[in-house]
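Practice set, problem 2.
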Amino acid sequence: MPGYCGAWSAVQEEDGTYTAVPLRCRSWACPRCAPLLRRRLVKALEGVEAHRFITLTCNPARHRAPADAYRTMSLALSHLVKRIRRLHPHARFEYFAVWEATKAGWPHLHMAARGASLPQRWLSGQWRELTGAAVVDIRRVQHADQLATYLAKELAKAPTAPAGMKRFRCSRAFLQGQRLTSWLRPPTGSKWQVVPVDTACQADVWRAQGKVVYVHHDGTVTALDRLRWLPVLDLHPHALSDWAFFLKVAAQYIATHPRAGLSLPELPSDLAEDLLPPPLAA
């Protein structure tokens, strides 16, 4: 969906401050979203506990093409995780797995794992039974921060998995409460609304309504009710040419005029990183 990146917006109004945030496609193939996803992934993995780094390979002789190997390994990974959890029912096994391809295009999985110790011989035997490949590597994780950077680096490469297959696999509890992806689904009573226009068009609508509009470097748009902020704009007519300067002037005005009932406009933290556009109608 990279072609639709930013084509929709999330809009809200609160206390005379209007905000429009571009809805990103969140695709690893998108040049705008890929660096953002990589940064978010590194941040989510920072400090996450992992005990071992496991590499699972494939046997090219068992497959007609790399795409078949991907599908076989993906299914086999699910069965392998179930077997590990049956082997250690009282020790929670969590993992984060990333695909990587060899120069010839054949896949292998890099997996950061947390949980009970796994015997090399047992793991190799299980993987041979599931996929026909016996080459399995297990190493103890020495530095979790380096592991996070490595996994993110693999995800930043050109996608190798077949279309429709995720670039990574992650068990539910591995990130220890961190959210890797999220999207805007306004709950009942939410002030956020999804509109099928980009933020530039929304800015034009607000300008036509007489609002003061400021466009941020990331595409987010802030609009202010001109009448509400008229005292500040009278003091500095060109304050809106620099957002940081406007906030400074507005803060000074609010401090010296407590009865004005004004509060500084706030932008939702990292909101642009959290939004996913709704599916477009066919």
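Problem 2, part (b): a different protein.
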Amino acid sequence: MGTAFVLSLALSAVVGFALGVFGGGGSILAVPILVYVTGIAPSAAVGMSLAIVGATSLTASYAHHRKGRVRPRVALLFGGSGIATAFLAARLTHRVSGAVLMISFATLMLVVGIAMFASARSVNDERDEVPRRHPNLIPAFLAGAGVGAITGFLGVGGGFLVVPALIAFTGLGMRDAIGTSLLVIAINSAAGFLGHLHADELNLGLVVPFTLAAVIGGAIGERVARSLSLARLRSGFALFVILVGIAVAALAITGTHPSREPRSSLVPRGYVGPSAGHPTAGTP
């Protein structure tokens, strides 16, 4: 068992932990981990990220559901509107180079990190609800479709967009929005993952252990969220996301790329790399 594999497992648990605490944001670390730590090609990392994030979010959403913090009808409306866009956007991932994909991802990380840091001051751990109002269906549907496209193309759950959209357009309270967003992420991730299956470059042998680590991290995060200050956690995590985004941008711009195949120490026995008919994104 190589050092990179162990480190990837630990970082997958961090991704799950962030999902369990914030209901979003943690998934944005999954692709950089798979690319720069595990050594997976960017386009394959997007598909693998969707499997890991989707399974973790579904598991975490069940814990929130038991506490009455998931609104299934709202999740089906918001997530259902993103199914088609997630699937179609996933098909586009393999049509762009790895460098363009990672620069786009780094840009998203910087935007999300800054937004999370700016909003952390307004997070009130005691305020669980906002005034109820009738859902604004058309904006909710359009927002869900947009989040689905981002999920499919870049392999992120989009919880950082789903939570504020649910609050703005459906009138959910903060904690209900976090729980419901996890189910939305699971729906969009499943659609995006199906869109990536045609590529024949997904290493499912690595998806399983990384997903288990993320699920365990998510369970811990959900428990930790009950007792710690969400504002302080959110600020620290936002700064971390910004730093990682800067690093990813620098690596992508300077042309520093990992190997196009998973590192040999991480490849399960019997794994065959991408077929000749489906070259890795960015391969000449």
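Answer key, part (b): Confidence is low (pLDDT under 50) at residues 259-265, 267-284. The two ends are 32 Å apart (CA to CA).
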